[in-house]
Specification:
The protein is built from 12 helices and 4 strands, in the order H-H-E-H-H-E-H-H-E-H-E-H-H-H-H-H. By secondary structure, it is an alpha+beta fold.
């Protein structure tokens, strides 16, 4: 296979890994992963993110508890928290002569979240190329007050996502990748199009492996779950630090 085929196949084959061998990630591989993350596309070349490498075992245990009680987080060889960070540039603007920066707003927060997440995906692709598995932890957005304390997050810095990484066990390598939607369900041309209801329900049923889990059960387990409601509450806490304001003048 040529280089392009290898990259495409790697993207197709990648699955979330939640069980790791005892093999550590070398300092060289860790640096390759972090450098790849920092080569990601970024808005205006601002790199509106900070990557926190969590090494302290107590902090890892605390994150495992605060992120929906998932012990494998504490056991992963590498834990990375990608934070949307508007603070760095605002501090620089405030300190530089001739600058009169406006206060950070919610638009800055959302743009920084995009920057941070793109960087995280670069890290995932790099890790996959090195034979290192990874799993995104969206629960880092929950329990805002606790995460802020664990990670010592100041104003205008908020977690966008967390990655745990390590060498996958043989069982993890054999895991079947969950089904994705067909392209017709997620790709529109020239504008948004609602999928007809019948087609939509059929597409979701297929994604849930032909009724092995009903849509109603999935709704209760995910959409209406306590952790989903907590994520919404915490998201407001994070974004309240980036208020809407009138910038039309």
């Amino acid at each position: 296979m040529n280089a392009s085929d290898i990259i495409i196949e790697s993207l197709r084959a990648r699955v979330s890994v939640r069980a790791f061998t005892d093999e550590l990630i070398s300092a060289e591989d860790e640096r390759i992963i972090l450098e790849a993350a920092c080569q990601a596309p970024t808005a205006g070349n601002q790199q509106l993110y900070t990557i926190i490498v969590v090494r302290d075992p107590d902090k890892r245990k605390a994150l495992a508890e605060s992120c929906d009680h998932q012990p494998f987080i504490a056991q992963a060889p590498l834990v990375l928290v990608f934070c949307a960070d508007v603070r760095r540039w605002h501090r620089a603007f405030s300190a530089a002569q001739g600058c009169e920066p406006r206060n950070p707003g919610v638009g800055d927060a959302l743009l920084a979240c995009v920057d941070a997440t793109i960087a995280a995906q670069n890290a995932v692709v790099a890790a996959q190329a090195l034979g290192i598995g990874s799993c995104y932890i969206g629960d880092i957005i929950e329990n805002a007050e606790t995460q802020r304390e664990i990670l010592a997050l100041p104003d205008h810095v908020m977690p966008a996502c967390m990655l745990v990484m390590g060498h996958p066990t043989k069982q993890q390598l054999r895991r079947q990748k969950p089904r994705r939607f067909d392209l017709d369900t997620v790709v529109c041309v020239d504008g948004y199009r609602d999928t007809p209801e019948g087609e939509l329900l059929k597409a979701i049923d297929n994604k849930l492996r032909g009724g092995k889990e009903s849509i109603a059960a999935f709704c209760d387990r995910k959409w209406n779950s306590d952790f989903s409601r907590e994520m919404t509450r915490s998201a407001k806490v994070w974004l309240d630090g980036f208020p809407f304001e009138d910038v039309t003048h």
